[in-house]
Write a structure and sequence with these properties.
By secondary structure, this protein is an alpha+beta fold. The chain has three domains: about 30-145, Acyl-CoA dehydrogenase/oxidase, N-terminal domain (Butyryl-Coa Dehydrogenase, subunit A, domain 1); about 145-255, Beta Barrel (Butyryl-CoA Dehydrogenase, subunit A, domain 2), CATH 2.40.110.10; about 255-400, Up-down Bundle (Butyryl-CoA Dehydrogenase, subunit A, domain 3), CATH 1.20.140. The chain contains eleven helices and ten strands. The chain has helices at about 30-45, 50-55, 60-70, 90-100, 105-125, 130-140, 255-290, 300-330, 335-365, 375-380, 390-400, and strands at about 145-150, 165-170, 170-180, 190-195, 205-210, 215-220, 230-245, 245-250, 290-295, 295. The strands form three sheets. The chain has a four-stranded mixed β-sheet. Strand 4 (about 190-195) and strand 5 form a beta hairpin. It is globular and about 80 Å long. The two termini are about 35 Å apart. The structure holds flavin-adenine dinucleotide.
Length: about 400
């Protein structure tokens, strides 16, 4: 057989516009201004005192309120309910700027999680009554939102949850326990996913439950490795009775609400990481130029220069995937594949970038005052929450009929 003939003939699997998807996006002047405004706000208001708050696991209500005044909590909430009414792409631009300027990654995670996983689904699936009752407070930050799907025996397999909701004369009685609930200790409002039918996609329903509902109890704050300024806890439901009007999106639609919310949350919680990586890159470049060993700047060592080039490559690749996923979601709604790709790329690049930064700073990078060890501790969580890296790969491969 001639060396250049391929046997058997190659089958091309690419269909339609699957060559990586659309690239037709660009920032408007308004979006650029929003991002710049976010950098200014975050570096003025959210950059001080983080070392102490991290050490003591302190959530700052003052800074939460400052974020709300700036419009972060209500970024996706339409103006009629006191929000900013921005689309996903604009929200990503703003949160990237916040990540760059703020050093309190835990606070930013709490805000992004509230905006994406509590306010977001209420905007998309809420009834008019639910929107007018809950959205203004969530948008102006007077109410703090949380989402509870994970349970002690169901994490990655979230839809295998055991919490039940049983109808009783028009009301619903919830029983079960949730764990790893971000904002749990401080939340006023919970979106709680419970089983209302047989196992499978149609057997889950999402309920909007206020903190003061009878039978709802919040566990003590859980101590954790990173994002320590974002409180997290268990939530217990013991005969917790809510009216039928607490159902979000209809009985049996919980899995659909959850999966669409995850598409959005992956983008909003990862956007600040792009800003953090940009900041780390700039710090590393500065350090590599200034730090001399044997009167030679360490940046003159090719091994250091290449590590920084790799940081930049991973940052830009992750950033483009994130922008494209946000563009996709803004213009065509669904973005499961795009948001999974972006979440996987950003979270893994985030950890790698923090790891490299510590190495480039040497022993200084290991010291708390240099604020790099905290960045690494914070970054590791990104490979776990909103679906682990393995689960993102399962999602991506699953859409190809694999796994
Ligand atoms: C900081 C933080 C904040 C969080 N906030 C919230 C929140 O607000 N609300 C909420 O409901 N939950 C929240 N979570 C929970 C989070 O979604 C789960 O931790 C995550 O889904 C993983 O579940 P798990 O911890 O039970 O791990 P497991 O599901 O037990 O997984 C353990 C390991 O096995 C791997 N694994 C499991 N199944 C598979 C599979 N099928 N294929 C390949 N690998 C697999 C995982 O990737 C992981 O490496 C949070 C978690 C963290 C760390």
């Amino acid at each position: 057989m001639p060396a250049l003939r391929l046997a058997p003939p190659m089958t091309l699997a690419v269909e339609g516009d699957s060559f990586g998807g659309p690239v037709d996006f660009g920032w408007t002047d308004d979006q650029v201004a929003l991002r710049q405004g976010a950098v200014g706000f975050a570096s003025r208001r959210l950059a001080d005192g983080v070392i102490e708050r991290d050490r003591d696991s302190v959530f700052s209500r003052d800074l939460w309120d400052a974020c709300a005044d700036f419009g972060l909590q209500g970024i996706l909430v339409p103006e009629e309910w006191q929000g900013g009414g921005h689309d996903t792409l604009s929200a990503v631009a703003v949160l990237e700027g916040i990540g760059y300027g703020a050093r309190d990654n835990g606070l930013v995670f709490s805000v992004a999680s509230h905006a994406a996983s509590c306010a977001g689904p209420l905007v998309e699936f809420g009834s008019e009554d639910q929107k007018s009752r809950w959205l203004p407070g969530l948008a102006n930050g007077t109410s703090i939102g949380a989402t509870a799907i994970t349970e002690p025996d169901s994490g990655s397999n979230a839809l295998a949850l055991a919490t039940t909701a049983v109808e009783n004369s028009g009301d619903w009685i919830l029983d079960g326990s949730k764990t790893f609930v971000t904002n749990g200790p401080i939340a006023d409002l919970f979106l709680i996913y419970a089983r209302t039918g047989a196992s499978g996609f149609g057997g889950i329903t999402c309920f909007v439950v206020p903190r003061d509902a009878d039978g709802l109890a919040v566990g003590p704050a859980m101590d954790k490795m990173g994002i320590r300024t974002s409180p997290i806890s268990q939530v217990h439901l013991d005969g917790c009775q809510v009216p039928g009007s607490a159902i979000l999106g209809g009985v049996g639609s919980g899995a659909m609400v959850f999966s669409q919310t995850m598409d959005l949350e992956r983008l909003l919680v990862m956007a600040p990481a792009i800003g953090v990586m940009q900041r780390l890159l700039e710090r590393c470049v500065g350090h590599a130029r200034e730090r001399t060993v044997g009167s030679v700047p360490i940046g003159k060592q090719q091994v250091i220069a290449h590590r920084i080039a790799e940081m930049e490559l991973e940052l830009e690749a992750a950033r483009l995937l994130l922008y494209r996923a946000a563009w996709h979601r803004t213009h065509s709604g669904a973005a499961t594949r795009e948001s999974a790709l972006a979440k996987l790329a950003v979270s893994e690049a985030y950890v790698a970038s923090c790891r490299t930064a510590i190495q480039i700073f040497g022993g200084y990078g290991y010291m708390v005052d240099y604020e790099l060890e905290r960045e690494l501790r914070d970054a590791v969580a990104a490979t776990l929450y909103v679906g682990t890296s393995e689960i993102q790969k399962n999602l991506i491969a699953g859409l190809r009929g694999l796994g």
